[in-house]
Amino acid sequence: MSYYWFKAFHLIGVVVWFAGLFYLVRLFVYHAEASEMSEPARTILKNQYQIMEKRLYNIITTPGMLVTVAMAIGLIWTEPEVLKSGWLHIKLAFVGLLLVYHHYCKRIMKQLEKDECRWTGQQFRALNEAPTVLLVIIVLLAVFKNNLPLDATTWLIVALVIAMAASIQLYAKKRRQDKERLMQVTQE
């Protein structure tokens, strides 16, 4: 019975953790774009985003990560033979990358707070896609285990990355066009 409790809370932790990571980097986008605004809006927005980032990271994202990891340890404790599975080693490697990403976000928060981060909103949009790719890989490994069809999975991941890159570029183009239209309207 404890296996099911660990699994349920592991899944809940994963959802919370990813929700936090997705929204955190979205806040970084807004934070970076606030730098392009004039005063006093720039200072007001940057201060507000800084508060939101800290709260999200400390109250939602990090606890989600801790629950995920703790419950994963519980799952392994209930079924230690799973440690012999190759798919789990690969999954844990990707989870390790996700942990690095999580802590890298903390570093970016500190840089934004000190006004030392030179990333653009566009670059943060691209960074925000990394956990999506990791999520897909981790879930596929957890579901398929040793039966993961590598050819199909590889093409799926490649297609996902291409689609995300294309959507980021299309959105950037739309934003530039909207900005140009707005400037034309204000000049008339």
From TrEMBL:
Source organism of the structure: Hydrococcus rivularis NIES-593
Membrane topology: Multi-pass membrane protein
The name this protein goes by in its record: Protoporphyrinogen IX oxidase
Cellular localization per UniProt: Cell membrane
The enzyme's E.C. designation: 1.3.99.-
Catalytic activity of the protein: protoporphyrinogen IX + 3 A = protoporphyrin IX + 3 AH2
Transmembrane parts of this sequence: 6-29, 56-76, 88-105, 126-146, 152-172
Membership in a protein family: Belongs to the HemJ family.
GO molecular function: metal ion binding; protoporphyrinogen oxidase activity
Cofactor: heme b
GO terms under biological process: protoporphyrinogen IX biosynthetic process
